[in-house]
Amino acid sequence: MNTDHNENVAQKENDDHEKNNENVQPVQKKINEFKSHYLQHFQSICCLGKGGFGVVFKARNKLDDGKYAIKRIPFPSRQESRDRVLREVKALAKLKHKNIVKYFNAWLEEPPRSWQEEMDNQWMPNSDCMDTSSNITTSPTDTTDSHSEQKATKQYLYIQMELCQKYSLSERLKNDTLHREMINILNIFCQIIEGVEYIHSQNFIHRDLKPSNILFISDDQIKIGDFGSVTKMITSDIWNEYDDKKCLNKQHTNQVGTQLYMSPEQIHEKPYNSKVDIYSLGVIFFELLNSFNTEMERVKTLQQVRNGTFPPQFLKLYELKTEKDMVCSMLSQDPKKRPTASNIKNMILVYLDRFNLLMPDSCPF
């Protein structure tokens, strides 16, 4: 009797095991058969950053042996969210300028469930990838997308871009590794202006200019990066698309670091145009001119400057007020009173001539 019972139990366990194998085999087969374009053509070197936007890898192209930055973004299921994410690709493909991160290629992948997680364990074995969710962003996807996609098979958008140095202007300012001589400050700022002027000439608005999105190719050559918030100018005058505005507001909610560079009209959800980028430039220019001892001091000071109050050491250092006037013009509460990128270039040229300053070759002016 016991023998029969044991045989039945053993048979049941064997049947269950075979059934589980039958269920596992198709999944494993899909995993084994999946061909990743990224894996076929690139070798991951290291992770450059990760956060809510996705992840950025430094990778070597197996064919040309070149090194690139590969940005991987979870691709949303809703069409509106997809359109927002794809704006970055479309903008990068169109914008070709020496002060804008160069775009090479983009593609979609739809790996089997759990495949990506297994690969990430190999690509990021020690979780040594710094969290840059406050530094590198992309157009946000709806929360409903992210929840539903956790259960479904995910699609990923890969963007192959020019590889820049690891540390952005944000890290250089924070670590005080930036040479703050006026020539160096103006050289960096002139290149940013040149890039922004070109972006606007192509009828785009960046909408997320900040030090963490200013990257370096060399110590004196910069590139504007992260076009995850880019939008087309609806007219040459005013931008007022409700869905996009709502989306941008979601992205920047509770992100004090980003809001420090946002124009008042963006924060208050009012119609706006390319002058929002000029406001961001005003904050960046002040930050280039003024050093801080702590992060708390930086946040507090930038908040005060946005309201027109400058620290005493800044006023003492720049007694002629030329620099302050330039910052104030860019930070005007009235967008119409803010200069264009071309106007700022002219202001800097007058400044250089006034003080007989000779700029390095990397300066575009």
Give a verbal description of the structure.
This is non-specific serine/threonine protein kinase. Its EC number is 2.7.11.1. Belongs to the protein kinase superfamily. Ser/Thr protein kinase family. GCN2 subfamily. It is found in: Endoplasmic reticulum membrane. One of its GO terms (biological process) is response to unfolded protein. Strands 1-2-3-5-4 form a 5-stranded antiparallel beta sheet. The protein is 47% helix and 15% strand. α7 runs antiparallel to α11 and α11 packs antiparallel against α14. The longest helix is centred in the first third of the chain and has 32 residues. It is an alpha+beta fold. It folds into 2 domains: 126 residues, Phosphorylase Kinase, domain 1 (2-Layer Sandwich); 186 residues, Transferase(Phosphotransferase), domain 1 (Orthogonal Bundle).
Give the arrangement of secondary structure elements.
Elements lengths: L1 H32 L3 H5 E10 L2 E8 L5 E9 L3 H16 L8 E7 L5 H9 L19 H9 L3 E8 L6 H6 L7 H20 L2 E2 L8 E5 L2 E4 L6 E2 L9 H11 L3 H4 L4 H4 L7 H15 L5 H12 L5 H6 L4 H9 L10 H14 L11
Antiparallel strand pairs: 1-2, 2-3, 3-5, 4-5, 6-9, 7-8
Helix pairs in contact: 7-11, 7-15, 11-14
Task: Give the proportion of residues in helices.
Answer: 40-55%
Alpha-carbon distance between the two ends: 96 Å
Any idea of the CATH topology of the largest domain?
A: Transferase(Phosphotransferase), domain 1
Low-confidence stretches: 133-144, 146-151, 249-256
Biased composition (Basic and acidic residues): 1-21
EC number: 2.7.11.1
Membrane topology: Single-pass type I membrane protein
Subcellular location: Endoplasmic reticulum membrane
